[in-house]
Amino acid sequence: MRTLIARPAGVAFAAALAIGLPAATLVAPPAPLAAQSGKLDSAVAALRGIATMRADFSQTDRQGQRIDGVMTLKRPGKIRFEYEKGVPLLVVSNGKSLTLVDYEVNQVQRWPISNSPLGALLDPSRDVKKYGKLMPTSNSNVMSVEVRDPKRPEFGVITLVFTKDSSAPGGWELTNWVALDAQNNRTTVRLRNQKYGVSVSDSAFTYKDPRRSTRRKR
């Protein structure tokens, strides 16, 4: 089996799960507080408006290693990152905890959603409005929101990037994000071919436990 992610980098790769912020966007002066509040509301509305979504993704770490796959999301709090053939990793959330499954070494690691930068994506009502900060952009059709809890730096930082799109939930489409975990591991994720309102079974957020000879689903 071909492995594209060195160990233990695979764990950091999955835990960070970040999408790249275009460098050219961070050039305008800060927006007034009222404008920031309004755009933060827009970001929350965009995230809350996603009942289900499926999208192709490209994930890149700070060494430039890239892998592709398919992301499936379902509210509340469920997400699955299915990697391309040859990558023996799976990242899945059942709504309560985020799990990294490594089928090459038969290991399973699990941590609360809130302890990951992905908490901002999976629980926008808690994180984006309270801990979000609008980042300056030079394009009014691009919105960049950095989310961090200053009292809990171990939870990491995620920067969500949206593009204005009237056909997307809330009028803004989540196109990419950048995540930085507590170990300073940076991950970039870019979405494409987003599809909303797709039928997604809860069984999509289960996994085969490689530690069990029966491979019973958790």
Describe this structure in words.
With 218 residues, the chain is of the alpha+beta class. The chain has a single domain (9-198), classed as Lipoprotein localisation LolA/LolB/LppX (outer membrane lipoprotein receptor (LolB), chain A, Clam). Helices cover 17% and strands 38% of the residues. The protein contains 4 helices and 11 strands. Helix 2 (33-48) runs antiparallel to helix 4 (124-131). The radius of gyration is 17 Å and the shape is globular.
How are the SSEs ordered, and which strands pair?
Elements: H1 9-16, H2 33-48, E1 52-61, E2 66-74, E3 78-83, E4 89-94, E5 97-102, E6 107-112, H3 119-122, H4 124-131, E7 132-135, E8 142-148, E9 157-164, E10 172-180, E11 186-196
Antiparallel strand pairs: 1-2, 1-11, 2-3, 3-4, 4-5, 5-6, 7-8, 8-9, 9-10, 10-11
Helix pairs in contact: 2-4
Please outline what is shown here.
It contains 4 helices and 11 strands; from the N terminus they run ααββββββααβββββ. It has 218 residues and is an alpha+beta fold.
